[in-house]
Design brief:
There is one protein chain. Helices cover 43% and strands 13% of the residues. Helix 3 links the parallel strand 5 and strand 6. It has an 8-stranded parallel beta barrel, surrounded by 6 helices. A two-stranded antiparallel ribbon has the order 1-12. By secondary structure, it is of the alpha/beta class. The protein has a single domain, classed as Alpha-Beta Barrel (TIM Barrel), CATH 3.20.20.
């Protein structure tokens, strides 16, 4: 018997792999960010080193495969192939929500990837709405079982609101996040799922002991659309384009976290190495991406994942070369020109 949890996870994978689940009218607004082209970059492309460290782990370039799946038998192959590619390339990976394995321990194997990826930065995942359900001890046990280096607490109010079975009690969540950030054994960070983090939310999270925020803004995969397609009714498609564009969310979060050591992951519609370098110039420490990785895995397995990731890295190297930056520190010191809607949005804030 396939449980309701497994069916939901399987449906999500199939919809993301085969259907149009993107935002339609809203973009990341990264297209409104202009980088300063250096016709004479005064460096050799062979000098460019995009390696970095994030929460104590080394990355060959600043890329995290954002949480995709876990909790269904079909998830196991997906996770193992992604993890294997990440190990070979030297980047990080996020796993899907551990809620399924906590409620149904037999599903733990669908999350376990350490046999093929012993060295990568690996993050476990739990929903903010589930923090009232599970104790920190229970979550620590789950993290130990999958040998995770960090815990991502995902906040998905928009997605939950359009699900008929959604958990829409988000009262007291910030205090719960504060509690978990003190009691979880590994570093904790907070991530949206594709609808963005505002200045006010980032400012509230600033007071907790979380170590990073993944803004996961609007412009990539719309989880309200995913669940609308899954249920074939309801409010999901009405809210398909709801949220804060990734570029705006990144700028607002960076502003809110000034004076702290908290890190920022930029994700949500990051589709090219140019997007990634723009995000780093705007203040991100890592970039994240999920949907193109899943689609590459579904069509060509490990080979497809590696081709996508190595192509993305090359795009980042070329972009870095064209703006005359040989490493992450130099990219962070660059200035970007903000245009159009992005400039207006930021000015309004």
């Amino acid at each position: 018997m396939v449980s309701q949890i497994e069916k939901r996870k399987k449906d999500h994978l199939e919809l993301c792999a085969k259907k149009d689940v993107s935002f339609h009218k809203k973009t990341t607004l990264l297209e409104e960010v202009e980088l300063s082209y250096k016709a004479l970059p005064e460096l050799s492309m062979s000098e460019i080193d995009l390696s970095t460290t994030f929460l104590g782990k080394k990355f060959s370039f600043p890329f995290l495969v954002s949480a995709i799946t876990g909790g269904a038998q079909v998830s196991k192959k997906v996770n193992l192939e992604i993890a294997s590619a990440c190990q070979e390339i030297g980047i990080g990976m996020g796993l899907g929500s551990m809620r399924a394995m906590i409620q149904q321990p037999s599903l733990m194997e669908t999350y376990f990837v350490r046999d093929v990826a012993p060295d990568i930065f690996l993050t476990g995942n739990i929903g903010a709405a589930q923090l009232k359900q599970f104790t920190p001890d229970t979550v620590n046990e789950a993290l130990d079982a999958i040998e995770a280096d960090a815990l991502a607490i995902h906040v998905n109010a928009a997605q939950e609101a359009v699900q008929p079975e959604g958990d829409v009690d988000f009262s007291g969540v910030i205090s719960k996040i504060a509690e978990y950030s003190d009691k979880i054994k590994v570093p904790v960070y907070v991530k949206e799922v594709g609808h963005g983090i505002s200045f006010e939310v980032a400012q509230a999270l600033k007071e907790t002991n979380i170590q990073a925020i993944d803004v996961q803004g609007a412009g990539g995969t719309s989880w309200t659309a995913v669940d609308a397609l899954r249920h074939k009714k309801g409010f999901g498609l009405i809210f398909r384009d709801f949220g804060i564009p990734t570029a705006v969310s990144l700028i607002e979060t960076k502003s809110a976290l000034v004076g702290t050591n908290k890190k920022i992951i930029a994700s949500g519609g990051i589709r090219t190495g140019i997007d990634a370098v723009k995000a780093l110039v705007l203040g991100a420490d890592l970039v994240g991406c999920a949907l193109p990785i899943l689609q590459a895995q579904q069509t060509k397995g490990i080979k497809g994942i590696k081709e996508y990731l190595l192509g993305f890295k090359k795009e980042m190297q070329i972009t870095s070369f064209l703006i005359g930056c040989k490493d992450i520190n130099e990219i962070h010191s660059e200035k970007a020109l903000l245009l159009g809607k992005l400039k207006e949005w930021v000015k309004e804030e």
